[in-house]
Every structure is written in C-alpha cells, then in structure tokens.
C-alpha cells in the first residue's frame, strides 16, 4: 500500500513535467498562472535640496546645498530655477539660470526684465517678444552680472562694451557715459547687435547726421579736428559734421564782426604767439588767421599752422593742390590771394595780399572780400579779372 502511494505521486510528477514540455514545444503561447514576474525598477529620488520646500539657495552638481563658487544651479523653495534671472542676497549679485537649470558663465545672455515670465513662458515666447521684454547682460566667470566697461572676446579679436552700473544692461546704439564712476564723460555708440564700441565716422539714423568717435576713447568729438590727414569741423554742441556752407558761414561771421577795426596788431600778435613772425608790410594775412581761430576753425587754416605772410599762405595751399586759378569763380570762405609787384617782400614772393571771399556778384564780375587794407577791416569789391590776382586758396570745409 505504501509502495502504491509512492508510485502514484511519481506518476503525477511525470504528468506535470510532460504538460510543461508540451507548452514549451508549442512556443510558450500560454504560461501557467504561477510563472514569476520581473522585478520592479528602482525609484530615483530627487536631491534632498530639491525635495526640501524650505530651502532656497545654491546647489552643487549632486543637488546638495553649497556656496556660490561651486554652484551648479539654484533652488527656489525646493524648485530648480530654470530660465530665471535670480538675485543672491549673500553675494549681492544677479545670475542667470539656463533652461536646463545650469548657471550661465562667461557669456552674454538675454534675460527677462520681469521674472513672471521665467521658465517655459520665457523659452516658448518668440524672439521678438523676448527682445522687447528682456535685456542683454554679460555674465562673468562666477556667473554674476558684470558692470561698467568690459573688454570681451569678439570672434578673432576683442571688443569694448559698456554695461550699466545699476542694471547691468549692455548698451546698444547711442549712449551717454557720465563721470560718476570715474569714466571719461561723453557720447559713445555701441553696435546695435554686438554691443561693441564704435570708432571713427558713424551715421546716426535717429538724428540724421554724421559724427566722429575718437579712435582711442570712442567718445564723440566736436569742433575742429584732423582725421586721416584732413581737417574737419563738427558742430560744437551736437557733433554733427556740418555741410561746407555752414562751416564757411562761421568764418564769415568772424570776419564781419571786425568791420571797421583799425587795430592790426591784435591780429599780428595772435599769429606771432602761434609761431609766426611780424609782417612789416601789414596785417592782412594775420587778420585771415585770426578769423579762423575766432571761428573755431583751427585746423582749417593750414592744418593748424600760423602765418602773417601772404606768400607762405599761397605756397602752402599750392603745394597741396588747393589753389584755384584766377579765372575761377570762388565760393564763400575761399581765400583771395593777389601779388602786387611793388609790395613783394622779396622778388620771387608768390603773393603780397590775402582776404576772405564773402560772395560773388550775380554776374560773376565782382568778388566781395573781407580784407584788412588801407588801415582797417572792410568788405572790398574786387574785380574778378584783376591783373595781379593770383587765385583762390581753398581750405577744407568738410569735404569727404
């Protein structure tokens, strides 16, 4: 009886094994109810600082609290800051958290001026909207917003930019720099795209004018100056490169202000103090020199030189191809130069008298010239075909 029970159990085990083999042979289409399930995957927990809603501050790469120097991100009440312009009271500086939560360093960034658009709202907005609702800043090696003048990489070179001392916003277009932080005051122009300081001639569309920014300081220049070996005159208030007629008008205003003046020594003394010598034949050319200085046109007269002698004036402009022949029609501001043999300081002198052309008659036959002659300053009517007329010197009046 005992042996029979043992044989029965054995037979039942054989049948179970046979049934399993049949299922496997059939491709495993049906598994028995007692088959084992796969183990469940482990649940990855966020770093402690990002689970702690009471924590606001810096976190390292592992998500643990840390100082600003070693920070990989920032947490606001347990929430990782993303696309957010944030302020750290500990350092007193502003920082930018990128879309992936990392802290931006060593580059420019367009940040929102209002953090209510932080996160996906900022990232999903159009470039035009972000530009209208943001500002460009430069983030330094620590990630903090930098301020003042910065020398930054620009392609294969370098560029100077200016970031506001209060807001950190990078300047684009025209910007006045004051001296409140020790900077040289003056207007500057920064590239509308890169923020790089501009130098040299620049067209300002908003003002409709040409101006000049110093090649070293980048500040707007005013008055008389030399650029590329040529004199220019820029409005003393706006810096605008004035048209020729407005520059010449300044000279003529200075000349007319002397109408009737008999004191020729005042003109000679001015030229002598600037390096010339006394002209015993008269103060005509010294008067011309004085008018240029009085009008603020220092470099328009012989590139800043000084003379009391008509022949030196004539020779200087002749050597530079700036003399019109006597048969030409001069413009206001040109210099009348004649050569009367009896008053030459030496036989080969090229000129003996000079004055400033005010205007020409409608028929072109009379040239009206401001001159110091016969002991006083007055507007003289000269014949266009005077036999001893040498010609007309042409100072530079903002020709490009």
Give average pLDDT, whole number: 89
Rg from Cα? 43 Å
**Net shape:** rod-shaped
**SS-based structural class?**
alpha+beta
| Helix percent band | 10-25%
Describe this structure in words.
With 400 residues, the protein is an alpha+beta fold. The chain is built from eight helices and 21 strands. It has helices spanning 2-25, 48-51, 120-124, 127-132, 244-256, 265-273, 284-294, 310-319, and strands at 57-59, 73-76, 79-80, 84-88, 93-97, 107-112, 134-139, 148-154, 157-163, 173-177, 186-190, 200-204, 209-213, 223-227, 230-234, 323-325, 335-338, 353-360, 366-373, 376-383, 389-393. The strands form eight sheets. It has a six-stranded antiparallel sheet with strand order 16-21-17-18-19-20. A three-stranded antiparallel sheet has the order 1-2-3. A two-stranded antiparallel sheet has the order 4-5. A hairpin with a 4-residue loop joins strand 12 (200-204) and strand 13. Helix 6 packs across helix 7. The longest helix is centred in the N-terminal third of the chain and has 24 residues, at 2-25. Mean pLDDT is 89; it is low at 1-37 and 40-45.
């Amino acid at each position: 009886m005992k042996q029979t029970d043992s044989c029965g159990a054995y037979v039942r085990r054989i049948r179970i094994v046979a049934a399993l083999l049949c299922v496997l042979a059939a491709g495993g289409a049906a598994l028995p109810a007692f088959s084992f399930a796969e183990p469940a995957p482990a649940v990855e927990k966020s770093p402690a600082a990002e689970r702690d809603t009471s924590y606001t501050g810096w976190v390292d790469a592992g998500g643990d609290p840390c100082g600003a120097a070693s920070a990989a991100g920032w947490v606001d009440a347990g929430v990782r800051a993303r696309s957010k312009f944030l302020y750290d009271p500990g350092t007193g500086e502003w920082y930018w958290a990128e879309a992936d939560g990392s802290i931006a360093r060593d580059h420019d960034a367009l940040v929102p001026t209002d953090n209510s658009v932080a996160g996906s709202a900022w990232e999903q907005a159009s470039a035009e909207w972000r530009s209208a609702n943001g500002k460009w800043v430069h983030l330094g090696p620590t990630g903090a917003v930098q301020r003042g003048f910065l020398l930054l990489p620009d392609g294969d070179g370098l560029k100077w930019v200016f970031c506001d001392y209060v807001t950190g916003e990078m300047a684009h277009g025209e910007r006045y720099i004051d001296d409140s932080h020790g900077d040289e005051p003056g207007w500057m122009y920064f590239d509308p795209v890169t923020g790089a300081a501009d130098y040299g001639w620049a067209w300002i569309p908003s003002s409709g004018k040409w101006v000049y920014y110093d090649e070293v300081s980048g500040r707007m220049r005013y008055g008389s100056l030399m650029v590329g070996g040529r004199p220019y005159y820029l409005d003393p208030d706006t810096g605008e490169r004035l048209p020729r007629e407005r520059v010449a008008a300044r000279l003529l205003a200075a000349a007319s202000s002397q109408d009737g003046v008999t004191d020729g020594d005042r003109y000679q003394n001015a030229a002598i103090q600037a390096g010339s010598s006394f002209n015993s034949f008269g103060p005509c050319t010294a008067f011309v020199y004085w008018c240029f200085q009085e009008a603020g046109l220092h470099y328009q007269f012989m590139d800043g030189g000084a003379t009391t002698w008509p022949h030196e004036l004539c020779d200087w402009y002749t050597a530079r191809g700036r003399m019109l022949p006597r048969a030409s029609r001069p413009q206001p501001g040109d210099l009348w130069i004649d050569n009367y043999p009896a008053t030459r300081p030496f036989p080969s002198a090229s000129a003996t008298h000079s004055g400033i052309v005010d205007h020409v008659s409608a028929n072109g036959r009379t040239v009206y010239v401001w001159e110091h002659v016969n002991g006083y300053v007055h507007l003289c009517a000269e014949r266009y075909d005077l036999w001893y007329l040498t010609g007309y010197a042409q100072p530079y009046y903002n020709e490009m």
